[in-house]
Amino acid sequence: MMLKKPIIIYYFSGTGNTLLVARKIKEVFEKQKYLVTLRKISVSGTIELENDYHLGIVVPVAIQSTFPIVWDFIDRLPEGNMRQVFFADTMEVFSGGIVGPMKKSLEAKGYRCIGACEFKMATSMQTTGKKAEIGKVKNKIALLKVEDYVQSLVDGRAKWRRIPGLSDAMRYISKGRSIWIKTSERIGIDYALCTKCRMCEKFCPVNAIQLTNQHMKIQHKQCISCMRCVNYCPQNAFTLGEKHVIQKKVTKINEL
User: Fold this and answer.
1) What cofactor requirement does the entry state (predicted)?
2) Which of the four, 78, 104, 165, 215, has the lowest number of CB atoms within 10 Å?
3) Can you say whether residue 195 is alpha, beta or left, with left for phi > 0 and alpha for psi between -120 and 50 degrees?
4) What is the pTM of this model?
5) Would you state the pLDDT for residue 153?
6) Which residues of 7-21 are buried (b: 16+ CB within 10 A; e: fewer)?
7) What class, spelled out in words, does domain 183-251 have in CATH?
8) What is the average pLDDT across 113-120?
9) How many CB atoms lie within 10 A of CB 241?
């Protein structure tokens, strides 16, 4: 059984899916009379974990693992002292390199891992109308699945499985910086559409976009390809593999 203690949920959301799940988890816990606080990983300089609080971590899958900004957050977490922690991630199809490695990292810090669940949701790289429609259906199903997951945490039925060899190998792929640079280099800017409103610069979670020589420029060595700029640009001026995406705006950009 999950003790009736307050919960802090730290989340990172590139384009909104993960925020939807984090909010739904909060809503379902609150129906069961838990006090829940949501906090953004992207603005967490000093990580504060009040005594006697459970910890939740909700993040997106990227390159079969998750973004460097998330792993940096995990590295900076204080010692767990057997604090209960649960985990959720959002993905398009498959992960492999996050659930197991996340458990390994948290247990090494002294946390007690009580449950993990993965939710298939809309891709942040919607290049066809078919993908966009499939994504809407997946999101509805995922949010319904959240209720079962939270109940399993409360009842003590939740599991957090780990397959050491496979998951550690998948995590290793995403550790190097080169694969993130290569992914980022697929993102471009259509200067004929860009109005230099600088929204992308303001809301980039890793400050990888700046106005340089009268143009917005992506610093690919710094970018993590979270797709926030691609999906929320007011002019849809960003391209992915030289194609404009069908933007997915499931929340307001200032809420991410």
Assistant:
1) [4Fe-4S] cluster
2) 165
3) alpha
4) 0.95
5) 98
6) bbbbbbbbbbbbbbb
7) alpha beta
8) 97
9) 11
**Tokens found for residue 164:** 């050491």
What's the rounded Cα separation, in Å, for the pair 149 and 166? 24
C-alpha–C-alpha distance, residues 44 and 32, integer Å: 28
Residues 126-152 have a mean pLDDT of: 93
Residue 46 token pair: 């000093």
Q: What percent of the chain has pLDDT over 70?
A: 100
Domains 7-173 and 183-251 share a fold: no
pLDDT of residue 72: 95
The string of DSSP codes covering 167-234 is HHHHHHHTTSSHHHHHHHTTEEE-TTT-----HHHHH-TT--EEEETTEEEE-TTT-----HHHHH-T
CATH number 3.20.20.450 given to 7-173: no
Cα within 13 Å of Cα(111), Cβ side: 26
pLDDT tens-digit profile of 162-212?
877 778 888 888 888 999 999 999 999 999 999 999 999 999 999 999 999
The tally of CA atoms less than 13 A away on the side-chain side of residue 174 is: 22
What are the backbone angles phi and psi of residue 35, rounded to the nearest 5°? -90, 120
Alpha-carbon distance of 125 to 241, in angstroms, equals 10
pLDDT at 213: 87
